[in-house]
Amino acid sequence: MMQPIVFYVQMFADSSEEDLEDSKQKLLILFKALVMTNQVFLRRNPNTIALYDSGVVYQPEFSTEEWQDIPTTLARGFGDCEDLAAYRIAELRARDIAANPHIRWRKIGGSYRFHALVKWPDVMRNGKLVKGRIEDPSRRLGMAKWANYLSIKPSASDADNF
Question: What are the structural domains, with CATH classification, of the chain?
Fold first, then answer.
């Protein structure tokens, strides 16, 4: 087996608006790449267990951001927001649901934090365009128990703190 590939991508290096916008764009590109990597895996492994049936739980990372694909997430039994959202988006796309990566941002103590989510497609209902909902796999898989560590207030609605 080949060793893991690690990307070192400089983001949020300074407080300029340009760096902030570039960094947000880079993060979304990487998120999309993780989704596409998972799609490749699911095409080859169509009987992969669904995320919400897998027993995988949410667990935050305490230092370096490690982004994991579906087989890594299943092997470890946990993932954080981008791991879980990328898994869920790929499985929805495998069912021909045009879900997309979505990131919410907030600033805490002078630094930016992101939260990766699933954006369901907009649909037409009764002749009206209905905006796609935002799904938060992290919340569903146990993020609330980490609320003190994450400095968030848990609530019943999806992703309302980001």
Answer: 17-150 (3.10.620)
